[in-house]
Design brief:
It is built from eleven helices and 13 strands. With about 350 residues, the chain is an alpha+beta fold. The longest helix has 20 residues. The radius of gyration is 21 Å and the shape is globular.
């Protein structure tokens, strides 16, 4: 991301300076002590201080279920697994769920470790025994928190392959009013295509798991041939209005996800001096002549912008330019006020008018 970010900075005439009060790094590399001991300053940090209940899959599943939101995530549950006794309890729970869908050809479940990244510890399975067989080794090695969800089927296909959407959402705090606002970008979302033709009977995870890091290990993976802007899908799939439908459904799902995540007071805390770009992954369910179902799979902190690839690099730079324009540039020369202004009257309420968010 470094070269794309530098190009975005240059376009806005923002000087890169290691001593600047705005820091853009991974969470662990940020100077939190300076921010937390000098909250009246012009410090900005490119990460929320606490966001576990949004980005940890198990916590998000828990809080969305607690809010009783439906059709946000695929049907499922979170579960802690530590030993063979826990695995047997999970098998019994899955036996009950599986009884109503024995004729389904697609894999019935997706099982994923709550805190895993890059496609690690993500499995598809058709039977309860297969679920247990796939997770046993990582569970006994100490991976405790898991999410079990319905495999979204039948999936929407592009060129005969399964794909998912990586959408980009910005959360940005404002030191003038103390409010943190969330925006979903209106344009720069990416469709990521599997390397294998879809077949419900396929045992190859490259058919079913479209995670970019996982797909890159396939010998026939070509990023520029498997990465498209969501705005290209209308023409590619012959479905006028598809991108608009996806945008509306993704906005709705992420709004509910943020509302649910905020229930976890120890897992979600915003600060007015913090902002963060998130990558949200969505699966699409084919519903025949109706618009596709849109299901949130996970929300990623510090998302890799390498998903854009060389062909879409200019869109990546524009996305970063919009982040800077909305979350950084307005605060560079503005000192924090002695008292917060009314949120409705704050300039941040209209800031997105100048960007693609």
């Amino acid at each position: 991301m470094a070269s794309s970010l530098r190009e975005a900075l240059a376009r806005l005439h923002i000087v890169e300076d290691a001593a600047a009060p705005c820091q853009w790094h991974d969470f662990a590399a940020l100077d939190w002590d300076a921010l937390l001991t000098d909250s009246e300053s012009r410090h900005r940090r490119s990460s929320l201080f606490v966001r576990a209940s949004l980005v940890r899959k198990g916590m998000l599943q828990h809080y969305i279920m607690k809010k009783r939101f439906v059709d946000v995530l695929p049907d499922g549950f979170s579960v802690d697994l530590e030993d063979e006794e826990d695995l047997e309890s999970l098998r019994c729970r899955l036996d009950t769920w599986h009884a109503s869908a024995k004729e389904q050809q697609e894999p019935f479940w997706v099982v994923k470790a709550s805190n895993a990244n890059c496609g690690c510890h993500v499995f598809v399975a058709r039977t309860p025994s297969e679920v247990i067989d796939r997770v046993r080794e990582p569970v006994l090695e100490g991976v405790v928190e898991w999410v079990v969800q319905r495999y979204v089927a039948p999936p929407e296909l592009l060129r005969g392959r399964k794909f998912h959407i990586r959408a980009h959402m910005l959360l940005s705090g404002c030191p003038q009013c103390g409010t943190t606002r969330a925006w979903l970008h209106r344009e720069y979302h990416v469709a990521l295509l599997a390397s294998e033709q879809f077949s419900p009977q396929s045992e190859d995870h490259h058919t079913h798991i479209t995670n970019a890091c996982f797909q890159e290990h396939h010998p026939q993976f070509v990023k520029d041939d498997q990465t498209f802007m969501v705005g290209e899908l209308d023409a590619m799939m012959g479905r006028v209005g598809l991108a608009e439908h996806l945008q509306a459904r993704m906005e709705s799902a992420l709004s509910k996800a943020l509302e649910a995540a905020s229930l976890g007071q120890a897992g979600f805390a915003t600060l007015p001096h913090c902002f963060e770009l998130f990558g949200a992954d969505f699966a699409l369910e084919n519903r025949g002549t109706s618009e596709p179902g849109v299901f949130l799979l996970e929300v990623n902190s510090g998302p890799s912008l390498a998903v854009f690839g060389p062909r879409l690099r200019s869109q990546c730079v524009c996305l970063l330019e919009d982040v800077l324009r909305l979350a950084v540039e307005p605060h560079l020369e503005m000192a924090a006020p002695q008292a917060f202004v009314q949120a409705a009257n704050c300039r941040c309420a209209r800031a997105s008018d100048q960007s693609g968010f």
